[in-house]
Design a protein that fits this description.
Order of helices and strands: HHEEEEEEEE
Distance between the termini: 74 Å
Oligomer: single chain
Helix content: 10-25%
Structural class: alpha+beta
Length: 146
Amino acid sequence: MKLLRVFLLLSAMMVFVACSNESEDYSYTGALPIPQNLAYELIKQQLGDKQLKEVDIYVSIDMLSAKTKVVSMGSEDIISPDCDSWLFFVDEMPLIANWGHPCKYIFVDKTGNVFAYERTMFPTEPSMEKMKLLNRADVWDGYDEK
């Protein structure tokens, strides 16, 4: 009976500590929170048919707090997952002069759950200045930024 109580107590504690698990893609089982480089590896799996040479990928410098509002141009705001997470922004058509083209907002929460949202506009909060570039598309080769 004492063992059953301990089991129930531990189970209840795990429910309170764990983040909401809306995603079926749980593939990180290491120490919490997930480091940025491992979260990036999960992101690369989410790209599907897109090749790394075709997209720009940015990541938030710091993890976002739970339920942070991510504001984008065009009123396509997103609320981050129920626990701290990395925000990855994937520009699927770099060098397109005007926005309104496919992009993705991908969150990797501190437990390794991945949440992807397809949008058409870039983030304004956190701004691109608060993100670092992890992958630059090959289309930039030879591009004169002037």
